[in-house]
Write a structure and sequence with these properties.
The protein has 345 residues and is an alpha/beta fold. It contains nine helices and eight strands.
């Protein structure tokens, strides 16, 4: 009996030691972004590109050579493209068909893709969250179903064309919710949370690997972000990433960058979620200052612990002499300004 016990003891000891030996590829940090495959997202929203091309616009590299806009973005150091989608826009641009055409081009250029659902027929932003005409008059339950079905249909259409996005925004700059008045956060945070969950669940039904972003503007405003995400958390909303916009002036960018970094660190600590800067921009006539702004911001986002600062996207840099938009990053000859050199490293 003593011999049998001794052998059994040695066997159990070996099993115990084997089970507690850490595998070389494992890590004590369970953050999914803290691994050797993490790639910081450097990107641009170029959703206007097909409309610009249809109007005769062309794009050129610094040497004046005409290039496809997606390839040009990649040559500037970008690895990701963001594209918006509206429900039923009157002119057709940024509808599902237009979105798929651009997403296929982005994929063929070797870029990761973010899809930005506005859940509107027109611009959705902090001052506008207009219900699509087809959804007018729907109560919250019907709106949740409409959000789910629209999200799933668009993503399945992309998937049928061979495109699976890396990230999906459920709503755009939803500072006070979306699909007003029913989903206005300041009057009914519960409804807003329900709409976020409808989008989230639709995304995961298509592909569980897609990361879902809730996107708020004014990334420097910690009070705003705490109010929104505390409210969503209390109402059991689900999200994977906190998205921010940041549009400083040429004189306050250093202050806003510092405040943004403080806010990012607070979001990561408070909610345990990584952060993405989904939109940035600055006056096109100050490209050198814009380069400094972007270089500093990218450095700050990269500095966030455990790779929880995921990336930075410039909003519509390819614009020049286009619809009066003055925060692009191309000069009047259709060539990128030095501002975009910030994405090169």
């Amino acid at each position: 009996m003593k011999i049998i016990f001794k052998h059994s003891y040695l066997f159990l000891l070996m099993v115990f030691l084997g089970c507690n030996k850490q595998h070389p590829s494992s890590s004590s940090n369970n953050n999914s972004n803290s691994n050797s495959t993490f790639v910081f997202a450097k990107g641009a929203d170029i959703s206007w590109v097909t409309q610009m091309e249809s109007s005769g616009y062309k794009f050129y590299d610094a040497n004046g050579n005409q290039q496809d806009c997606f390839s040009l973005m990649k040559s500037l150091g970008m690895n990701s493209i963001r594209l918006r989608v509206w429900v039923n826009p009157s002119d057709g641009w940024c509808n599902t068909t237009d979105l798929v055409a651009k997403a296929v081009r982005a994929k063929n250029a070797g870029m990761r893709i973010m899809i930005d659902f506005h859940y509107s027929d027109v611009w959705a932003d902090p001052g506008h969250q207009t219900v699509p005409a087809l959804w007018a008059g729907q109560n919250i339950a019907a709106l949740e179903t409409s959000v789910y079905n629209h999200t799933q249909t668009v993503l399945n259409t992309l998937k049928a064309s061979g495109v699976t996005p890396t990230w999906v925004q459920v709503g755009n700059e939803t500072n006070d919710g979306m699909l007003w008045e029913t989903g206005r956060a300041s009057t009914n945070m519960t409804n807003f949370a329900g709409l976020i969950n409808a989008g989230y669940n639709a995304v995961k039904a298509v592909d569980t690997t897609i990361k879902v972003i809730v996107h708020i503007s004014n990334g420097y405003d910690n009070t705003l972000f705490r109010w929104i995400f505390d409210g969503l958390q209390t109402n059991r909303a689900n999200w994977d990433i906190i998205g921010m916009s940041l549009y400083p002036t040429t004189t306050n960018w250093q202050t806003l960058n510092s405040q943004c970094l403080t806010n990012i660190n607070d979001m990561v600590s408070r909610y345990g979620k990584p952060v993405m800067i989904c939109e940035v921009g600055m006056d096109v006539n100050s490209p050198t200052i814009c380069q400094s702004f972007l270089t500093d911001l990218i450095s700050k986002v990269k500095s966030v612990s455990n790779n929880t600062g995921l990336g930075v996207f410039y909003w519509e840099p390819e614009c020049y002499n286009w619809q009066g938009y003055s925060l692009g990053a191309f000069d009047n000859s259709g060539k990128p300004t030095v501002a975009l050199n910030a994405f090169a490293n």
